[in-house]
């Protein structure tokens, strides 16, 4: 059984013309749950189901929680998702639509996560939103798909929250002898835990996370993402909330696809001309998606 699907790789004429290079979009927004998180959740849930797991427990009120709920439903196993009070009504609705048990606990993710951990057992497996090697294994298949279509990118642009996407992409690039290519890791001003860590030379915990890109709001990037960012050619970038939202709007006009601001941060790099590329460069943008974004929320 394949839970995550092979997503389209499309050439973006508008972004190619804007950037003066060849821009390719890996459309993770086309996953059944609307985000790349289904690659990681599907892979780790299948792994534990094969080992005899009876249920799953997760602690994300965003894309990861929805993806675990979906994976459990596909595998015929019950799922409990613990979300903080800040989780949107839309995200809660999508988690329950997948048949998961929803528990609201705590003001922030760390409190919800602590409660989720207390529910886990040998057979009720805890699924972390971003920090587990099995998650990165699932995400790394994204690069396998790109390579299989004959594209060897000269640069990659992606968003960073907890760091699972960065971890999985670096892993996939290493498998295909592409560890040397630059990765532009983009965050919003209010969620820039990776940029803060790279500047400090060590992982730091942000005093607070803020802004519109709620799915990037990890106060500390996972240790693996920090380590691979220091070893690989990872270039941290920061954009404003307005830039992220405007990029989502322009992308909707250009490609008829609605993405969340956490994805807009990557698109902003090209829409706002924040990075320069050569005419023959193949630039891969991970359109990471957004399970619970709506037109109303973006307009708001």
From TrEMBL:
Which E.C. number(s) belong to this protein?
Answer: 4.3.1.17
Name the source organism. Answer: Candidatus Pantoea gossypiicola
Q: Which UniProt keywords apply?
A: Lyase, Pyridoxal phosphate
State the name under which the record lists this protein.
Answer: L-serine ammonia-lyase
Q: Which GO terms describe its molecular function?
A: carbon-sulfur lyase activity; L-serine ammonia-lyase activity; threonine deaminase activity
Q: Which cofactor does it need?
A: pyridoxal 5'-phosphate
Record bears the keyword Lyase: yes
Catalytic activity line of the entry: L-serine = pyruvate + NH4(+)
Q: Which SUPFAM superfamilies match?
A: Tryptophan synthase beta subunit-like PLP-dependent enzymes
Instruction: Output one GO BP term.
Output: L-serine catabolic process
Protein family membership: Belongs to the ACC deaminase/D-cysteine desulfhydrase family.
List, for all copies, the residue spans of the domain called Tryptophan synthase beta chain-like PALP. 6-289
Its lineage opens with:
Bacteria, Pseudomonadati, Pseudomonadota, Gammaproteobacteria, Enterobacterales
UniProt enzyme class: lyase
User: Which segments does the entry list as coiled coil?
Assistant: none
Task: Please give the PANTHER family that the UniProt record associates with this protein.
Answer: CATABOLIC L-SERINE_THREONINE DEHYDRATASE (PTHR48078:SF2), THREONINE DEHYDRATASE, MITOCHONDRIAL-RELATED (PTHR48078)
């Amino acid at each position: 059984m394949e839970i995550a699907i092979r997503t389209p790789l499309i050439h973006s004429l508008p972004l190619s013309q804007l950037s003066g290079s060849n821009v390719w979009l890996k459309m993770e927004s086309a996953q059944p749950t609307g985000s790349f998180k289904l690659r990681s959740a599907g892979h780790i849930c299948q792994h534990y189901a094969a080992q005899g797991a009876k249920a799953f427990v997760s602690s994300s009120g965003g894309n990861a929680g929805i993806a675990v709920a979906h994976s459990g439903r596909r595998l015929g196993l019950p799922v409990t998702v613990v979300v903080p009070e800040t989780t949107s009504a839309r995200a809660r609705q999508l988690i329950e639509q997948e048949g998961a048990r929803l528990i609201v606990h705590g003001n922030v993710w760390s409190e919800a996560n602590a409660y989720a951990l207390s529910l886990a057992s040998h057979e009720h497996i805890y699924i972390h939103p971003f920090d587990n090697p099995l998650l990165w294994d699932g995400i790394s298949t994204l690069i396998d798909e790109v390579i299989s279509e004959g594209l060897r990118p000269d640069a990659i642009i992606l968003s960073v929250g907890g760091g699972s996407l960065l971890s999985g992409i670096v892993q996939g690039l290493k498998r295909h002898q592409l560890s040397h290519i630059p990765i532009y890791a983009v965050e919003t001003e209010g969620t820039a835990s990776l940029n803060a860590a790279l500047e400090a030379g060590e992982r730091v915990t942000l005093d607070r996370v803020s802004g519109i890109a709620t799915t990037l709001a990890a106060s500390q990037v996972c240790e693996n993402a920090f380590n691979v960012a220091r070893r690989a050619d990872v270039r941290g970038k920061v954009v404003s909330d307005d830039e992220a939202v405007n990029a989502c709007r322009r992308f909707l006009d250009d490609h008829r696809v609605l993405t969340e601001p956490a994805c807009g941060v990557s698109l902003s790099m090209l829409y706002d001309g924040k990075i320069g590329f050569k005419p023959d460069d193949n630039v891969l943008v991970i359109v990471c998606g957004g399970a619970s974004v709506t037109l109303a929320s973006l307009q708001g």
